[in-house]
Amino acid sequence: MKTKLIGLLTVFLVGILALCSLASAAITIEEVEMDGTELLENVPNALDIVRGEEYTVKVTFTSDEALDDVQVEAYLRGYDHDDRIEDITDVFDAKLNVTYSKRLKLKIPQRIDIDDSNWTLRIEIAGQNGASEIVTYNLDISSDRHLIEIKDVIFS
User: Fold this and answer.
1) CA nearest 81: which of 103, 55, 49, 110?
2) 123 and 135 in contact (C-beta within 8 Å)?
3) CB crowding 92-130: b at 16 or more within 10 Å, else e
4) Are strands 132-142 and 44-50 parallel, antiparallel or unpaired?
5) Cα(150)–Cα(141) distance, rounded to whole angstroms?
């Protein structure tokens, strides 16, 4: 009776370990920088983003498996106009245990709503099939004091 119970528990533990190894992430995001400042995931970042400027986002990651047709994307959602705040890399193949660094450009529009200055930057790394990873970073977007934008002048 005890040997059957021990055998059953052993099979159960081996099954759990097998499922855990399958569920582990194949993509590990090592670091995300915005204009040279490292961003921390899911906490307020000290970096102050100004409307109307373009920023470089550097994503460093490693893959635990070989992946085909991978793309890295950085984006902000919730902007209520036709132009989008996003950038995506060209397709590339990620080799096993190789660290990659990809640079993306984000143009923060002048018309972005500053009443809600807290925005979430999402970094997504995904292949055509298989593994993917999404991480989020909180940003504070501000505007210059007394900013006036002249859109049109009419002389008669």
Assistant:
1) 110
2) yes
3) eebeeeeebebebebebeeebeeeeeebebebbbbbeee
4) parallel
5) 21
**∠96-98-104 over CA atoms, to 5°?**
120
The band of 23, judged by pLDDT with boundaries at 50, 70 and 90, is very low
Q: Strand (E) positions, the chain? A: 27-34, 37-38, 44-50, 54-63, 67-76, 85-88, 92-94, 99-107, 118-126, 132-142
Q: For residue 133, give both structure tokens.
A: 């990873």
Q: What is the pLDDT of residue 14?
A: 64
- How far apart CA 91 and CA 152 sit, in angstroms, is 41
The percentage of residues in the chain with a pLDDT greater than 70, rounded to a whole number, is 73
DSSP per-residue codes, 96-121: TT-EEEEEEEEE--TT---SS-EEEE
